[in-house]
Amino acid sequence: MSRPQTSRILWAGLALMLASGGFSGSTVAEDRAPNVLLIVADDLGYAELGCFGQKRIQTPVLDRLAFEGMRLTSFYSGSPVCAPSRCTLLTGKHTGHSYIRNNGNPPGRVRDDDRGLFPGQNPIPDSEVTLAELFKGRGYATGAIGKWGLGFEGSSGDPNRQGFDLFFGYLCQAHAHNHYPRFLWRNGEQVPLPGNDRGQTGAIHSQERFTEEALRFVDEHQDRPFFLYLPVTIPHVSIQAPEEWIAQYRGTLGDDPEWINENPRGYTSHPTPHAGYAAMVSYLDHEIGRILDRIDELGLTDDTIVFFSSDNGPTHDRVGGADSPFFDSTGPFRGLKGQVYEGGLRVPTIARWPGRIPAGTTSEVAGYFPDVMPTLLDLVGAPDLIPDSIDGLSLAPTLLGKPEDQKQHEVLYWEFPAYGGQQALRLGDWKGVRTDLMRGKDLGIELYHLASDPGELHDRSAEHPELVSRIERLMFEARTPSSLFPFPILDGLEAPPERP
After folding, report:
1. Fewer beta carbons below 10 Å: N end or C end of the chain?
2. What is the pLDDT of residue 12?
3. Which among 95, 157, 120, 149 has a CA at the least distance from the CA of 487?
4. CB count, 10 Å around CB of 317?
């Protein structure tokens, strides 16, 4: 059977499901299932968009998206670093149950820049059910364009083996540290980018190619529902943006000291890192606008759910020249990337679906990446596809302006066996945090009341021992050990620790 004929049959079946009530009629247009555009920025801080309080960086497209949709102001990533966060997004499982719980490379895979080889990170197995597989099974065209980080080419984690018809971009996050790479991947084949040679600048910025591929994907699938996942690499360092965007900020941000890279295998140097970083975010904003404009030109805006977020908090300690304190990147929150405090986890999140998601609204409902799978499936009228094994719940009632129907998480949970070893759990307005668990620190819990202390400045564990005991029990119940990502001090617990 030819591909076009197969597509027509799938679309006919989809239309039949719509007509017979296979999708919930209140959320889906009568003549087609909605498209889904899922955009995930890389290391974008909570307050790095104008609509979330940013003062120095211009983001008119995303500000307009927020004006046309809903801001989620208490929404969290799945982890404070890349790979585990993306795993929670695509599988609906938090890091107490997800297969990937930390960055890491599989045995035998090494980096060789001269030969263009990259390790590709530990692959998720065939047994994991991804959001793309569920959409594809519902008749959607599926594409992923950007940074993958969940398996190398040909592995079980290869995006083409995890439900994506198209993958274009970086398979390995180390490869993605350069925005002017010598090649990108398209469905298992390397695509050369002539004029790029691992320098600060080059002929082709990766985001330019991401946008071109996204526009092509939308054009090719405008007549059938599509799921397009855009895990872009901006503003992850290296600091690299087209010169015309840097020029808009050069000399406008006060003192901008040159950042010199002293590690030849690390991120590239930059003469004006503040201008360069701001340019990256504004350039991303512009490129997202190009994609939204094409969707509008094709008359698909009202039939397209757009969900925007970030994979974790902003870069720490001026790594790569990024300066999160200068841009007040986390707003009122404590912590940065790699930390389970609010600044490392709480991310700017926007959802738009004209006529369904109320425009110009804000929600403080607590949610996180495991909720994306059930929310999107619920919105497109496919709640029957939501796996029973996930940790997420649907935020569709909130997004559709029906907060009275919204189920609430009892807890939101994170564990991170790196950066000293960390664990966090949010229980209503309370949050328990453990740090340095790999460095011999005891299992004591810091306790913060987020409603009155969003900056997590005042540890109140001594005032509420019963609440601390409850959080300890919930942390114990929230996880199962992982052989791939051992967490010795937690894996050895047979019961919650006894408190004096």
Report:
1. C
2. 38
3. 95
4. 11
- Residues 122, 7: Cα–Cα separation, whole Å: 33
Class level of CATH domain 29-405: alpha beta
pLDDT for position 9: 34
Structure tokens at 284: 């991303």
Q: What is the pLDDT of residue 500?
A: 61
Q: For the domain 412-491, what is the CATH code?
A: 3.30.1120.10
Residue 389: strand pairing partners? none
Position 140 scores a pLDDT of: 98
Selection from 172, 318, 317 nearest residue 231 by Cα: 172
Q: What is the pLDDT of residues 203-222, one digit of tens each?
A: 999 999 999 999 999 999 99
pLDDT tens digit sequence for 228-261: 999 999 999 999 999 999 999 999 999 999 999 9
Q: Do domains 29-405 and 412-491 have the same CATH topology?
A: no
Do 159 and 92 meet the contact criterion of CB atoms below 8 Å apart?
no
Domain residues of the chain, as ranges? 29-405, 412-491
pLDDT below 50 — which residues of the chain?
1-29
pLDDT at residue 441, as a whole number:
86
Cα–Cα distance list, 442 to 248, 434, 438, 457, 494 (Å): 50, 9, 10, 20, 16
Query: Letter for the amino acid at 223?
Result: D
Provide the CB-side half-sphere exposure for 250 (13 A, CA): 11
